[in-house]
Amino acid sequence: MAKVRLPQGKLLEAAGVSLEELLLKQGLTGEVVGALYDGELHDIRDPLPTDGEVRALTLSDPEALEILRHTAAHVLAQAVLRLFPGTKLAIGPAIADGFYYDFEFPESISHEDLPEIEEEMKRIVAADYPVERVFLPREEAIGLYRERGEAYKLELLSEIPDERISFYKQGEFMDLCRGPHLPSTGLVKHFKLLDLAGAYWRGDSTRVMLTRIYGTAFASAEALEQHLRWREEARRRDHRRLGPELDLFSIHNDTIGAGLVLWHPKGARVRHEIESFWKERHFAAGYQLVYTPHIGRARLWQRSGHLDFYREGMYAPMDIEGQEFFIKPMNCPFHIAIYKSRTRSYRDLPIKYAELGTVYRYERSGVLHGLLRVRGFTQDDAHIICRPDQVEAEIRKVLRFALEILRAFGFSDFSAHLSTRPAKYVGTPEAWDLATAALRRAIEAEGLDYDVREGEGAFYGPKIDLDIEDSLRRSWQLTTIQFDFNLPERFDMTYIGEDGREHRPYMIHRALLGSLERFFGILIEHYGGAFPVWLAPVQAAVLPITEEQIPYAEEVAERLRTAGLRAEAWTRGGKTLRYLIREAQLQKIPYMLVCGAREAEAGKAALRLRTGEDLGALDLEEIIARIRDRVQRKTPEL
RNA sequence: GCCGGCGUAGCUCAGCAGGCAGAGCAGCGGUUUCGUAAACCGCAGGUCGGAGGUUCGACUCCUCUCGCCGGCUCCA
User: Fold this and answer.
1) Contact A461, A434 (CB under 8 A)
2) How far apart are CA A630 and CA A419, in angstroms?
3) pLDDT digits (tens, 9 = 90+) for A60-91
4) Using the CB atom, is residue A211 less than 7 Å from strand B?
5) A575: Cβ under 7 Å from strand B?
6) Does one domain contain both A406 and A510?
């Protein structure tokens, strides 16, 4: 007997029926849209399990969103078939925050067609068609799709082993589908079509390009509104918009090259602060800073294996006095060369080389995206070289270190992924096991949520990836901690052990921020361009009310700069205070020091915060102490 | 790379039935000397992304090309 928990908490016992039948028998209808058991979503028309606990879901359960969106995708497909007869259907799943359906249209459509499709969808919702589940024998299903010329559906069918094929039907529309679905189309009340994009059939660039329509659906109008507001906020915070607006960076495809970033003075100042903090923390954590060249001979990349395994990510060689050189896609071979420059003792380990190393990798033009996907970038790279008995402690340290650094930048929600040994790998299973266990224990010691990606590790070693969640609740993968059993072999890295013999060290690659370019892009969006005081390129703007106060404003700015703060006196003259304040607000400068005749007289400044708060006239020492305090604590407070 | 959309002044955008290319902001010059998110007047600024075609005439229509944006992982 299965125990069925209803939305109001009531428990029912059931056997041999579906949830739908059970509810009908009880005279309970309408509200329940799906079931959750064995950790999976199920259709209310599915037979219930023979035992265990079943949760009946209503639209107000977050788990039911996936069902709602899947049905919304069907409504979309139904509307499209009505408006564009002859359209072929591909797939239409629910995704992270919405749904899509891939179509092959007889003629291409554009954004302008979306409202019309949306209108038709509304009619389908208003008609409130019951959604029925139908099973067809395999042959009949194939016959049906042959007749309609639905090549994509036929291909999908050919991969389904079952003899009874599951279909869902609503009104005149019927689609091959595993489900689950809502009981009727009338429940899809709050949806919106969002985007139109090309998408390869099955994500394979050698196959045809279909037209994908994206949409989203929610259980309530408020939730839909909220989601649309978030999209709008994300658009407003787009680093590609804020970058030029705040004069942080620029990218010039036509003159300089795609995916190559120019850091303007203000962006460079933010980067400098990030780098200074990074270096200081790394020294404190026992890392040694190194610098290595941008190019190296072909034989180096031959030995490292990059030319065999990574060539498509590398730029063409250059000829220097008859020898081939490659621009570096990674820093590791250079760090290894430093390690190998002398004989290492077990007493020397662990050795941790850190470098803000600029690398260049080929990315297809279409995937380049602002600072987030570029061709030239600076990794915050380090290699930890240690003995087997140090692995555990070093992994713990590096994970804890990563979290400490990320927290300083205002990130507090983390999740981890542990990727384990794939089918093809180098190194011994024992080494993999030791490394994987160390990674797992480190994650658990930090109390992080994590999932295990079985077999997803690189061929050369297992790894931990850390995702952070930003202020718009989007997640980004930043930190990666990877074992490497390949390069120490290839370069024959050794140390002399207590026994006087050569041993192979363990090597761990790690990047905490990933790349400075990408991290900067994420930071810009996370803060919406309003950096915390310690990172703000300009911390204080000193604003004279009339030209009379220009000398005083300059003096005030100078005082702040002498105190180690980043202050500018805005002394161009002829501008009203209102104008200057608006400028400073748009530049998202944390502090505005207003200097009028009264302040100049008293040796003070009126402090206005970026939040709009006016703190009135304060002594300069008080202002300096306040700003320094915020810088020192790296707090977002002003 | 591929599909769809978009390229007009440094930025944001208007314009077109095919008939002299426009506005605001920014810049420059001047006037104003101002108390918490845009003072006022003036000046300058353009191969309408590029090339070709149709036409008496193209920013406008057609073809090609370059660039940008959305997407190409989510699996009936």
Assistant:
1) no
2) 39
3) 888 888 889 999 999 999 998 998 888 888 88
4) yes
5) yes
6) yes
Residues A237-273 pLDDT 10s: 888 888 888 989 888 777 777 888 889 999 999 999 9
Q: Identify each DSSP E strand in A182-266 by its residue range.
A: 190-200, 209-218, 249-251, 261-263
Question: How many structural domains comprise chain A?
Answer: 4
Reported ipTM: the value is: 0.84
d(CA A450, C1' B76) / Å: 30
Burial class (CB in 10 A: 0-12, 13-18, 19+), A628: middle
Question: Which of A's residues 428-467 have CB atoms within 7 A of nucleic strand B?
Answer: none
Residues A49 and A186 in one domain: no
User: What is the domain-level CATH number for residue A588?
Assistant: 3.40.50.800
Distance, Å, A13 CA → B8 C1' = 70
Q: Which of A69, A133, A271, A332 is catalytic?
A: A332
| Domain-located, residue A244 | no
Say if A307 falls within a structural domain. no
Backbone region of residue A573 per phi and psi (left: phi > 0; alpha: psi in -120 to 50; beta: other values):
left
In a domain, A202, yes or no: yes
Catalytic residue (choose from A181, A463, A518, A566): A463
A110 touches strand B (CB under 7 A): yes
Same-domain status, A230 and A256: no
